[in-house]
Amino acid sequence: MFSHIFTSVTDFERALSFYTPVMNALGLEQRFCDRQRPWAGWHSAQKSRPFFVICQPHNQLPHHPGNGQMVAFAADTRAVVRAAYSAALAHGGVCEGPPGLRAQYHPYYYGAYFRDPDGNKLAVACHVDDDTRQPPAACMTDDV
Q1: Where are the domains of the chain?
Q2: Matching CATH number, 4-57+69-139, of 3.10.180.10, 3.40.1180.10, 1.20.140.10, 1.10.10.60
Q3: Could you tell me the pTM of the whole model?
Q4: In what order do the strands lie in the sheet with 4-8?
Q5: For 25-79, how does the pLDDT look when each residue is reduced to its tens digit (9 = 90+)?
Q6: Where are the beta strands (DSSP E) in 35-90?
Q7: Which of 39, 46, 82, 97 could staple 55 via S-S, CB 3.0–4.6 A?
């Protein structure tokens, strides 16, 4: 569905220091990093796309995080949610909701929410039960 998702940052080196451990915790591979441009992109090992890319705004205007916008990363287990959240907070992220069940979405939705150092809102979510590795019967995991 997506080719790439760009998230603008104001300080590339600070953002790279934040995103690298978060992406590592999620098991995402860095595909490129060009400090001269500056930009960096990651993708899953199984697919070449979509890319998640950090960069400074192309139009050279100041970055502004959007209200109501969020990028959510999929996690295979609840432990990965916790690891990504911990990496985010350890590298300058701000909590927007600690790891936990969010039954209002579906019975197995386990997520964490945080902001990067520029204020961009991010989430990490696991949509399966850790014991059975199955989504709830009444839920299409790709819908949430």
Answers
A1: 4-57+69-139
A2: 3.10.180.10
A3: 0.84
A4: 4-8, 51-55, 39-43, 29-34
A5: 999 999 999 999 999 999 987 777 788 999 988 888 888 888 788 999 999 999 9
A6: 39-43, 51-55, 71-74
A7: 39
